[in-house]
């Protein structure tokens, strides 16, 4: 009596193919509207949206069913003779009149009313109550077979997940005109929804078979094999996981030694999706494995691809797409699951995901800076997955995956290279659609890469979208090997130190390139290579420069046929730092990277070589030093003094050796004797560099520094370099004497004053030549370690000589001065710190 359109829900048509009425019950029963109240779906939706839930303390389910049977299904209220009557009972609690249910159900059977019952378990789950009694009661309301008429959902929102399945059940009643609600079998099967040609069987997906649970029709020669409804499912569960699962949405096969496996996807199974792996045993389906999706609505199993990576004729990987997999921002990001084949079992290996998409919609987020015009936002990565023949000519087949919703529905594809029996997780290339997204959308919706389309011997790739297709020619792959040689290949530090004062030390470098195409069928006449050469690349300031430019970096082009070399010269600067070798970095690429061959990604596009400094450390090439430092204070005059330091090395030569001198703020630097080999940097502290290299075993260096007030450093073999210090304090001094056993002259005389500065001067005492100093405590660790009262009794405190605590070679000689207590008015703590 009219036509029927099947969509996501039943359509109410003007000629009343379907009519809908609603009865609400609780303590009482109310007709919200009758069957003939509205003639379009839109009118029904508007009216239903205005219904308010009625509250009460009882649930009279039997009364509600009885009222609907007696009053709703009447000709006066829209019921028509010969039209199937359907009642859907939705409740979230046990009835208070369940003693009447059996009689009411029997009356419905007599009136041929098909009943679907839905139990909402939300209040039971929230209250942690057992819903078993409710489920049994609601199942008793449903028509037979119960598994096709009964639903239960975890909460009210989950009702949305069964709307389509319920509509398909009701649609089946009209389509088959079966008063017992028999299921569809092959009437709406859509055989050929997907297809795959294997070595043995042709596979035809039939997603509409068996109430859209789906199946796979197997064709061999001219014989069809249609599996039974339960061939892929042992039984229908109470939750109806397999309802409208769409088995056969995509089909494929896998080759293993001695056998062939068949694979079919069910993207709607249990709302998370499933993939079934099976084989044919004569004409029977033998299920080997089931793989399940992890996220509701992800459409896991809607895309399936198998690939032989290493070209040994056997399948290596199974790739399963879940293009509607939700990301962290609820965008349809998409995901592709990779399974490796172990004998006849697929094992999870990894998952691939696209570049993160920024979802920013004008009508939802006011702070957007880059607005998306289209919804849904995301990528739908995995909408298409295509095995392609070896693109990079490394001997392994590759994978291309489409993401048609990327870049605001412009689309993109990702290329992944094979690697032995797997693929590399990082994509090798991402190809974006470009353009404004108006003329062509959904780039990457379909992909094919099995043929050479331009006759160059390389596999080409075709990528389709809404509004057109793009053809991509593959480019050959070039292996470029670069090398560098240096003459001399090592730098003699001692020779460099002397030569730098006269002539520059030059190093000759030879740069060579060798190129070979990986395609055996194609030869190349010549190609241009652009290269960059950087000297001392790991240093901020280079120790060497190119002779032609006086710069550390150059860029040049070279035309290479099969191999070619070029020379560059550079010279060393007088930088006294030879701890690390000179690193020379060579980087290169084709001069025109957009045409011709591409560089092999498996080979580096840069080369680094080192120029080492020679070290006289024997065959081990590792110097083990043994440095000793001895400081001495030497007099000059009343306001100036010297500090001499003796540095000894008892083992291998020392490189980059430095001596540091720290002095107090009241000391002013006066001057330093210049030495050709060594240098000192002055300031608040003094740093002196000790030779390159510094000394072989048993050699020593002396250096003397002069500054204002307290210290001085010198070093060089048997020669003194002097740094002078001047005292900015001229206060009356008291003094004491120290002498060192290793010196014939002088013995040190230290004069103490409150300003704690130093002064050196000649003074005779006990028949010996003495030098006097006003001292400043440079560190808290310095101490006066012993006292000998035999020479003088003017030092109060009675300090006694202590040979064990004396610094090596120093002896207390006496004091001179008129102050009481400690010299110069110092406290004992001050004296101990000197």
TrEMBL record:
Belongs to the integrin alpha chain family. Residues 8-166 form the VWFA domain. One of its GO terms (molecular function) is integrin binding. This is VWFA domain-containing protein. Keywords: Calcium, Cell adhesion, Disulfide bond, Glycoprotein, Integrin, Magnesium, Membrane, Metal-binding, Receptor, Repeat, Signal, Transmembrane, Transmembrane helix. GO terms for biological process: cell adhesion mediated by integrin; cell-cell adhesion; cell-matrix adhesion; integrin-mediated signaling pathway. Its main location: membrane. It is found in: Membrane. It is a single-pass type I membrane protein. Gene3D superfamilies: Integrin alpha, N-terminal, Integrin domains. Chain A, domain 2, ntegrin, alpha v. Chain A, domain 3, von Willebrand factor, type A domain. GO terms for cellular component: external side of plasma membrane; integrin complex. PROSITE patterns: FG_GAP, VWFA. InterPro entries: FG-GAP, Int_alpha_beta-p, Integrin_alpha, Integrin_alpha_Ig-like_1, Integrin_alpha_Ig-like_2, Integrin_alpha_N, Integrin_dom_sf, VWF_A. FG-GAP repeats lie at residues 286-348, 367-425, 429-489.
């Amino acid at each position: 009596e009219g036509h029927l359109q099947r969509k996501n829900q039943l359509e109410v048509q003007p000629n009343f193919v379907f009519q809908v009425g609603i009865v609400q019950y609780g303590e009482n029963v109310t007709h919200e509207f009758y069957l003939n109240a509205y003639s379009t779906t839109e009118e029904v939706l508007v009216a239903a949206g205005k219904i308010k839930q009625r509250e009460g303390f009882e649930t009279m389910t039997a009364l509600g069913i009885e009222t609907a049977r007696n009053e709703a299904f009447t000709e006066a209220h829209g019921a028509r003779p010969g039209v199937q009557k359907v009642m859907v009972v939705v409740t979230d609690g046990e009835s208070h009149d369940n003693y009447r249910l059996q009689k009411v159900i029997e009356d419905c059977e007599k009136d041929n009313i098909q009943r679907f019952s839905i139990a909402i378990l939300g209040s039971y789950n929230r209250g942690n109550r057992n819903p078993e009694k409710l489920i049994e009661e609601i199942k008793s309301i449903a028509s037979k077979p119960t598994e096709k008429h009964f639903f239960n959902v975890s909460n009210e929102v989950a009702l949305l997940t069964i709307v389509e399945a319920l509509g398909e059940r009701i649609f089946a009643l009209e389509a088959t005109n079966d008063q017992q609600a028999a299921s569809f079998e092959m009437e709406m099967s859509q055989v050929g929804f997907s297809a795959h040609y294997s070595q043995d069987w042709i596979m035809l997906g039939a997603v509409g078979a068996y109430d859209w649970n789906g199946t796979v029709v197997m064709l061999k020669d001219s014989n069809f094999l249609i599996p039974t409804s339960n061939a892929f499912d042992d039984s229908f569960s109470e939750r109806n996981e397999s309802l409208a699962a769409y088995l056969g949405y995509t089909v494929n096969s896998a080759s293993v030694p001695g056998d062939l496996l068949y694979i079919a996807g069910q993207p709607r199974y249990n709302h998370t999706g499933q993939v079934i792996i099976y084989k044919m045993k004569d004409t029977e389906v033998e299920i080997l494995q089931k793989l399940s999706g992890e996220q509701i609505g992800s459409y896991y199993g809607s895309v399936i691809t198998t690939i032989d990576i290493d070209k040994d004729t056997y399948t290596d990987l199974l790739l399963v797409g879940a293009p509607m997999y939700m990301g962290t921002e609820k965008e349809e990001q998409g995901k592709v699951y990779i399974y490796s084949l172990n004998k006849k079992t697929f094992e999870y290996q990894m998952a691939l995901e696209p570049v993160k998409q920024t979802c920013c919609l004008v009508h939802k987020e006011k702070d957007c800076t880059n607005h998306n015009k289209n919804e849904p936002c995301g990528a739908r990565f995995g909408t298409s997955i295509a095995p392609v023949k070896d693109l990079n000519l490394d001997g392994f087949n590759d994978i291309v995956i489409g993401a048609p919703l990327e870049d605001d529905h412009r689309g993109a594809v990702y290329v992944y290279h094979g690697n032995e029996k797997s693929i590399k997780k990082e994509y090798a290339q991402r190809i974006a659609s470009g353009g404004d997204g108006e003329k062509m959308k959904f780039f990457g919706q379909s992909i094919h890469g099995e043929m050479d389309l331009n006759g160059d011997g390389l596999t080409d790739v075709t990528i389709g979208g809404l509004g057109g297709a793009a053809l991509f020619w593959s480019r050959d792959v070039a292996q470029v090997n670069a090398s560098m040689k240096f003459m001399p290949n090592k730098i003699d530090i001692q020779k460099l130190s002397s030569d730098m004062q006269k002539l520059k030390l030059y190093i000759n470098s030879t740069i060579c390139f060798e190129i070979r195409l990986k395609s055996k069928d194609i030869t190349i006449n010549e190609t241009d290579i652009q290269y960059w050469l950087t000297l001392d690349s790991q240093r901020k300031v280079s120790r060497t420069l190119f002779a032609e430019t006086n710069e550390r970096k150059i860029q040049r082009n070279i035309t290479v046929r099969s191999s070619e070399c070029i020379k560059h010269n550079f010279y060393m600067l007088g930088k006294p730092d030879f701890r690390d070798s000179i690193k020379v970095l060579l980087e290169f690429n084709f001069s025109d990277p957009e045409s011709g061959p591409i560089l092999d990604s498996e080979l580096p596009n840069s080369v680094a070589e080192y120029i080492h400094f020679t070290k006289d450390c024997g065959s081990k090439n590792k110097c083990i030093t043994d440095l000793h430092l001895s400081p001495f204070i030497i007099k000059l005059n009343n306001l100036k003094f010297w500090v001499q330091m003796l540095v000894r090395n008892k083992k291998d030569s020392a490189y980059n050796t430095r001596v540091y001198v720290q002095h107090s703020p009241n000391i002013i630097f006066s001057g330093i004797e210049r030495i050709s080999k060594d240098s000192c940097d002055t300031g608040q502290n003094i740093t002196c560099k000790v030779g390159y290299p510094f000394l072989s075993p048993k050699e020593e260096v002396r250096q003397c520094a002069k500054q204002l007030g307290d210290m001085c450093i010198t070093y060089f073999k048997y020669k003194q370099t002097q740094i002078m210090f001047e005292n900015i304090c001229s206060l009356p001094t008291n003094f004491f004497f120290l002498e060192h056993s290793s010196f014939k002259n002088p013995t040190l005389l230290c004069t103490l004053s409150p300003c704690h500065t130093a002064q050196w001067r000649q003074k005779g005492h006990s028949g010996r030549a003495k030098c006097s100093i006003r001292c400043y405590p440079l560190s808290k660790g310095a101490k006066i370690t012993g006292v000998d009262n035999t020479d003088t009794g003017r030092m109060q405190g009675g300090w006694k000589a202590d040979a064990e605590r004396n610094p090596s070679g120093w002896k207390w000689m006496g004091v001179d001065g008129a102050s009481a207590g400690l010299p110069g008015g110092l406290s004992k703590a001050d004296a101990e710190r000197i």
